[in-house]
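User: I've been trying to design a sequence by hand for this structure and keep getting stuck. Would you show me what you'd pick, starting by listing the structure so we're on the same page?

Assistant: Good idea, let's start from the same input. This is the structure you sent:
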């Protein structure tokens, strides 16, 4: 399954295009979700629930599309999917097996719930139902807590499996191969086809293990979103999806801006170092 660097590069560029188009779609979804949340109080309850449920279903379908495409591209370039060039350094620093940590969905939910609870505290004290995440019922909280514990347990298993795969990089076969190839290089000998084939097979096995882990991690990410939405009311589900989209889009945007600023700073420093001083020599010299 090991792909050539050329195929991996082309694959990365293709998924980058898909990712950018998917971001446009997520922005459109966000606009619809926000409009729906604002219209919530003005519509008939039954009709509104149907409308919100349909919108939630549509947004979830877009998440399914994203993970389906990601899985397809990962088959030919698993390493590129685990270190995606289309993300910012900020996003990359917080990646867990090629994406967001599933347990983060609960931190997002509780954070938004706390914010909305505080904002509507006076309404709740007066007995008004705000219908948003600030008004989670006792039963909902129990179900969310149970799901959180289950998700963390599955997340932990995947993290442990990832550690085992990472440790295989220093297994006996890799250490032996690295020694044999190093000896050949020291003697100015070419690495023969037999050794090249052993290297490819060894790395390919590790890629297959990583591909399996990414698939399971993405499945957990998607199932976590779906299970949370099943616990929430349609109105609460809309608010949850709004918070998720806003966080994802803004983190991506802030990260890209930070990368651009760092690149500009490096370019400015390079330019200053290359400029000649009063004696006609560059600052670098």
């Amino acid at each position: 399954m090991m792909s050539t660097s050329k195929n991996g590069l082309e694959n990365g560029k293709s998924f980058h295009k898909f990712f950018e188009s998917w971001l446009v779609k997520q922005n459109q979804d966000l606009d619809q979700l926000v409009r729906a949340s604002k219209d919530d109080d003005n519509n008939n309850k039954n009709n509104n629930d149907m409308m919100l449920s349909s919108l939630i279903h549509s947004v979830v379908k877009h998440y399914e599309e994203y993970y389906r495409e990601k899985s397809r591209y990962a088959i030919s370039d698993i390493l590129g999917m685990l270190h995606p060039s289309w993300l910012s350094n900020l996003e990359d620093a917080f990646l867990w097996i090629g994406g967001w940590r599933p347990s983060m969905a609960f931190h997002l939910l509780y954070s938004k719930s706390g914010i909305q609870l505080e904002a509507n505290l006076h309404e709740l004290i007066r007995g008004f139902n705000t219908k948003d995440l600030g008004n989670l019922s006792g039963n909902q909280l129990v179900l969310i807590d149970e799901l959180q514990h289950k998700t963390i347990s599955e997340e932990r298993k995947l993290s442990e499996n990832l550690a085992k795969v990472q440790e295989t990089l220093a297994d006996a076969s890799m250490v032996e191969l690295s020694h044999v190839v190093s000896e050949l290089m020291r003697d100015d000998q070419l690495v023969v086809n037999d050794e090249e084939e052993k290297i490819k097979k060894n790395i390919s096995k590790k890629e297959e293990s990583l591909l399996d882990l990414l698939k399971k991690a993405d499945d957990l990410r998607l199932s976590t979103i779906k299970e949370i939405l099943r616990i929430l009311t349609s109105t609460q589900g809309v608010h949850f999806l709004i918070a998720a989209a806003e966080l994802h889009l803004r983190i991506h945007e802030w990260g890209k801006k930070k990368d651009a600023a760092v690149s500009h700073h490096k370019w400015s420093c390079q330019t200053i170092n290359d400029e000649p001083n009063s004696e006609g020599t560059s600052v670098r010299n």
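That's my pick for every position. To get oriented when you compare it with your attempt: Residues 23 and 249 are 8 Å apart (CA to CA). The chain has a mean pLDDT of 88.
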